[in-house]
Write a structure and sequence with these properties.
By secondary structure, this protein is α/β, with parallel strands linked by helices. The chain has helices spanning about 5-40, 50-60, 80-90, 115-120, 120-125, 140-150, 205-220, 225-245, 260-275; strands spanning about 45-50, 70-75, 100-105, 155-160, 170-175, 180-185, 200-205, 250-255. Helix 1 packs across helix 2 (about 50-60) and helix 1 (about 5-40) runs antiparallel to helix 9.
């Protein structure tokens, strides 16, 4: 049955009122959870941008069918990948297509296997001034293209990068469109890609913890001794230039020290309370 102009106006008015009431309830719910989180010895949320909670509530209510793209950045070894994996584990009880897709910026490193082969070792490669920790060694243009494809509902094939050999395989993995796309990496909030993000997250971790994690991971990737020391010095320098400034533009700052159990606890709390409201 078609609605006349008067009925349509009234419908839109009451629909809008219902939306605003729901948005208000979600905002209050999230504020309560943030207040509870703040009391913890290791809270998950260290800082939240003014207006961010309202923005999220509006998106939840008014953009239900829209793809939600979340960009998660932080320094090397800050815990970005672990945070994403823990969040997915906490939020999604069964891995069904269409719920979430994870895009790893590490997969978009450009192939530098020839440079490594010519140098003979990582140590000799670093002596030439080569850096793995600047945005130009990552194909941000391709990553942006893939993110836009996923947001528009088109599947992509992400590349796959081998950190030991520096080989990039263009036929990596099929990534399908989903309700939530989680994009994580060192430079996902840099100017080349940040404008496509709906939510910008920065993972903060103390430098002493980062250093310990970084060296352990470097060894697993074939970098030890002087080669590891040379790259870590470069990591600190480039983080100051390209990563730490994104702290200022993030919608929220996440604690890279929280446990998987606490992420599970607070995520369950958020989802349970929102389900009661919605």
């Amino acid at each position: 049955m078609m609605l006349d102009t008067y009925e349509l106006t009234n419908y839109n008015f009451y629909s809008s009122r219902l939306d605003m009431n729901l948005i208000s309830s979600i905002v209050e719910c999230l504020k309560e959870i943030l207040a509870e989180d703040k009391k913890q010895a290791q809270p998950l949320f260290l800082q939240v941008r003014d207006g961010f909670i309202m923005d999220i509530a509006r998106k939840v209510v008014q953009e239900k069918k829209k793809t939600f793209l979340i960009g998660i950045t932080g320094e090397s070894a800050s815990g970005k990948t672990v945070f994403v994996d823990n969040t997915v584990h906490a939020c999604v009880k069964d891995n069904k297509d269409g719920i979430y897709t994870v895009i790893r910026q590490d997969d978009y490193y450009k192939d530098t296997s020839k440079e490594l082969e010519d140098a003979g070792s990582y140590e000799e490669l670093f002596k030439t001034g080569f850096s793995f920790d600047t945005p130009d060694v990552i194909d941000l243009e391709l990553m942006r293209e893939h993110l836009l494809c996923l947001k528009s509902g088109t599947a992509i094939i992400s590349p796959k990068y081998d950190f030991k050999t520096c080989v990039s395989d263009i036929n990596g993995e099929i990534k399908k469109p989903a309700k939530v796309i989680l994009a994580e990496g060192l430079y996902v909030l840099n100017r080349e890609v940040r404008d496509v993000m709906d939510v910008k997250v920065y993972v903060f971790t103390p430098l002493n913890v980062i250093k310990d994690r970084w060296y352990k991971r470097a060894e697993s990737r074939g970098k030890t001794g002087k080669a590891a020391d040379m790259q870590y010095a470069d990591v600190n320098k480039t983080a100051q230039m390209y990563i730490r400034p994104n702290y200022e533009i993030a919608d929220c700052i996440i604690n890279g020290m929280v446990t998987q159990e606490y992420i599970q606890e607070i995520t369950d709390k958020i989802l349970t309370r929102l389900s009661e409201i919605c």
